[in-house]
Specification:
10 helices; eight-stranded mixed beta sheet; homodimer; alpha/beta
Chain lengths: 304, 304
Amino acid sequence: LKKIAISVGDLNGVGIEIALHAHDEIIKFCSPIYCINETMLNRASKLLSFKPKNEMQLSHVEGAFQIQSGVIDAQSGLYSYCSFLKAIELTNSKKTDALVTLPIHKEAWSRAGIKYKGHTDMLRFYFKKDAIMMLGCEELYVPLYTEHIPLKDVASTIDEDRLTTFFINLHKSIGDKKVGVLALNPHAGDGGVLGSEESIIKKAIENANSTLDNELFFGPLVPDTAFTPHARKNFKYICAMYHDQGLAPLKALYFDESINVSLNLPIIRTSVDHGTAFDIAYQNKASLTSYINAIKAAISLNAK
Amino acid sequence: LKKIAISVGDLNGVGIEIALHAHDEIIKFCSPIYCINETMLNRASKLLSFKPKNEMQLSHVEGAFQIQSGVIDAQSGLYSYCSFLKAIELTNSKKTDALVTLPIHKEAWSRAGIKYKGHTDMLRFYFKKDAIMMLGCEELYVPLYTEHIPLKDVASTIDEDRLTTFFINLHKSIGDKKVGVLALNPHAGDGGVLGSEESIIKKAIENANSTLDNELFFGPLVPDTAFTPHARKNFKYICAMYHDQGLAPLKALYFDESINVSLNLPIIRTSVDHGTAFDIAYQNKASLTSYINAIKAAISLNAK
């Protein structure tokens, strides 16, 4: 069985309860190693009045604090960071085969003085590589050209060289898949009337196809019609220029099934495709689907 | 039966074929008046080798030219404009109860020297009112705060007064409906880390609710999770800050069913939610669903 390092996420959110509830199921197909100490695991378990039947293997992460369900808290933020760091180290040193992350809270990280905006940002720094964030499921994958930046900053990131490199790196990770590339502007700019970045995207697509000597990247596609049932028949991979452009339609269609994958890194990392869900934390009702799919995807990517 | 003025759209596209094929069906629940002359109607009908069983009532629109299926053409652009203008006049003078538009081609309008970007833009000018564009169907309606502008210009339109007025005008048109309002930035700005426009949106929501003395506007909602099956249970109306934010998930979910409604105008105008579809014009295969839904919505809005 593949060994999977699991970072527990923000303990004030739904992550740990998902891990506890899924444990008896996932040990059928992997060996999970949870990056948390026994005290904190017991506190969470007690709050939930729930314990899995089978023993959980832990990798100790120092720290102790009071869990406050649904609260943005610096201590909880720091602990989720340390759990993640431990899981990276285990996987990078080959003690585990892959890394699956449970959700952290970005503001809790910020309050804890952590300068990274999230998991992918931190991985990028740790490995000094341009990690690519991709969300999705078997039916539809959405790689993101930009991720956690304000909307007003998106247009200025559209750069021919940067986009070309992004497409080439994406191809390295996913192989010879056809990728539909979204335009930036409504109606793909309508011939320049509604914005002009489409000409840059078009050039980058041509560069990438020419470098790869293969017609794999297509577009720029009109963003609001690229996800219709008819259009989805053309592409299983739809590359978005920014976060909500790709993730709003993806989650409208495949919310429960979707997972998050980090591509273009030396290690394999997958994640659930939802946040800390503070509003329903510690109510024993969070869905396990995305987490279990994330573990399965980590194993399947590892087998490649 | 309500009288519906129908503007025939660009005659080189799918509009007129949809009107011809749907005629025998729609006369069961309305009296359509087609803004076209007999010569042009006959030319389209002949090209399609199709004629409805029941007679069609026409309102004469001057002009004659050769129909060229799938071609962007100034004459065809001009004719679609004149048909639209006639339909507005019929409805504004109460000769008809509502206006339903078939798709025009924006570039054909531009080539014909027409300065408006589309139907909504023209209505805004004609009535000197800030028309609100809303797309959707029974299950989900998406009013748009901004429409056909480049993505880079969206953030600077987020203004407290302008947004407040928009919410109040929207309420005037749709009545006491609960409306979920999307944030501008990913994760609704994540407490300011990913953008700060959410504080402005929040204030405008508070202003509108306070003016209306009713809690009708909610948010700002995290954009990429507002369209999940679970979240859609909360709001049938989801207001988007920009075009693709709202329309990509809407069309992913309800492409065939959706229609386009112009709100905040002295007349009722609905439209199909698709373009001229030049690639399949004059093949007798365009879907009638959006058009029939648009007529039904016009009648139902008229009954209010």
